[in-house]
Amino acid sequence: FYVRAEVPDTSTIFVALGYGFFAELTLPEALAFVEKKSKMLTQLSETLTKDSAKIKANIRMVLEVIKQEGEEEGEGKNRGSDVGL
Description:
Elements: E1 12-18, E2 21-26, H1 27-83
Antiparallel strand pairs: 1-2
């Protein structure tokens, strides 16, 4: 939502730093902070994306091994049932 307000001194603004903390910064300081935070979040996003891809690949490998184990187990059962014929 938006609120109309008059701000008598626009030389500083409050910036959310995270974890509920705020800092009163000048406009140049705020811009520098936002740029650094943006870069940091972009790097974090890239790292998490890479980690996620690795985890997905590991899950696929495990599922493939489980599938192969199941197929081998199924083949063994089929062979055992043919012996009695």
